[in-house]
Automatic annotation (TrEMBL):
This is SDR family oxidoreductase. CDD domains: SDR_a3. Gene3D superfamilies: NAD(P)-binding Rossmann-like Domain. The lineage of its organism: Bacteria, Bacillati, Bacillota, Bacilli, Bacillales. Residues 5-225 form the NAD-dependent epimerase/dehydratase domain. Pfam families: Epimerase (PF01370). One of its GO terms (cellular component) is cytoplasm. GO terms for molecular function: aldehyde dehydrogenase (NAD+) activity.
């Protein structure tokens, strides 16, 4: 791979994919709809000679075609808001796949684990797709669209991430906790503090995603992007206090508390049905990756949280 385009390049995942590609000497086009955010991304990379950008709307497949016509691989990192998923996710999928198919390109789709529902078996790529939530069912439809036989020329793969964190993270469940602690404010933690959960450090995820994308035989399949180890909220907060020095209270939000907040906040209202993930967790197996790609990068939580919180404190 010598050239690539990253759709949704200014988002949390998009930014690390851009960085990983540039680090490998690959020419990158950052695609997004915000001029100011794309300018900030260019500045963040000191106007790297291999980085350019194109303005466009992810729902306009012709804009994607125009921007991606000279690249080898399309990385689809754009997403839709929780409250817009029902109306917009399949439109997004149709747009990016129509563009990839028209151009005959490889396309890497970044997605999550909602398609699985409750964990009932080893969390490998063959885990049953039995979602019990509205968002999970929509994500199954999204996967079916990506791998639809109607696309004759595109070659797609899906990478699935658990919850994540990192210097570029923006919309993860852990984000409000880390942002509050970085600002030395009272903050909240979504879920209970005792359940060990899986989180992937975004730079590690980007490395794995690009490694998968480099292999021709990776396409047409789902791929897990597992985290380092399991860690509880209590352990995360302990490390974060060491980094930030913050001693302000952290308030765990239960399902009932989020349901109450959801009466006034549409985003929190949408989180309620996903709270099963904070109670039971879902552990992704990395066996397929290890067997076909190589060792899984595992940045220790202490180092990852230090880098994340240092960035947040600098922004604050």
């Amino acid at each position: 791979m010598k050239t690539a385009i990253v759709l949704g390049a200014t988002g949390g995942t998009g930014q690390v994919i851009v960085s990983e590609l540039l680090g490998r000497g690959i020419e990158v086009i950052a695609f997004g709809r915000s001029q100011s955010k794309l300018n900030a991304l260019m500045a963040e990379h000191d106007y790297h000679p291999k980085l350019t950008y194109k303005l466009g709307d992810i729902f306009d497949y012709q804009a994607i075609i125009k921007a991606a016509e000279d690249v080898e691989v399309i990385f689809q990192c754009a997403n839709v808001k929780y409250q817009e998923m029902k109306d917009k996710l399949l439109l997004l999928g149709e747009s990016v796949m129509k563009a990839a198919d028209t151009l005959g390109k490889k396309i890497v789709i970044v997605d999550g684990i909602y398609v699985y529902g409750h964990q009932v078996a080893k969390g490998d790529e063959s885990h049953p797709h039995q979602p019990h939530t509205k968002k999970g069912k929509i994500r199954v439809e999204f996967e079916q669209l990506i791998f639809s036989p109607k696309w004759k020329s595109a070659k797609a793969l899906i990478v699935r991430l658990p919850d994540y964190y990192g210097p570029t993270s923006q919309n993860s469940y852990l984000q409000p906790t880390l942002e509050g602690m970085a600002a030395n404010k009272i903050s909240f933690f979504i879920g209970n503090l005792k359940t060990p959960r899986e989180y992937v450090y975004l730079p590690d995820a980007a490395r794995m995603i690009v490694n998968i994308a480099m292999k021709d035989d990776s396409y047409g399949e789902n791929w897990n992007i597992p985290g380092a180890e399991l860690i509880s909220g209590k352990e995360i907060i302990k490390i974060a206090r060491q980094v930030t020095g913050s001693r302000k209270p952290i308030i765990p939000l239960t399902k009932n508390a989020i349901r109450l907040i959801g009466l006034f906040d549409v985003f929190m209202r949408e989180i309620v049905e996903m709270m099963y993930l904070t109670k039971d967790g879902f552990i992704l197996s990395g066996e397929k990756y290890k067997k076909r790609i190589g060792p899984i990068p595992k940045t220790p939580f202490k180092k990852g949280l230090e880098e994340t919180l240092t960035r947040l404190m600098r922004i604050d």
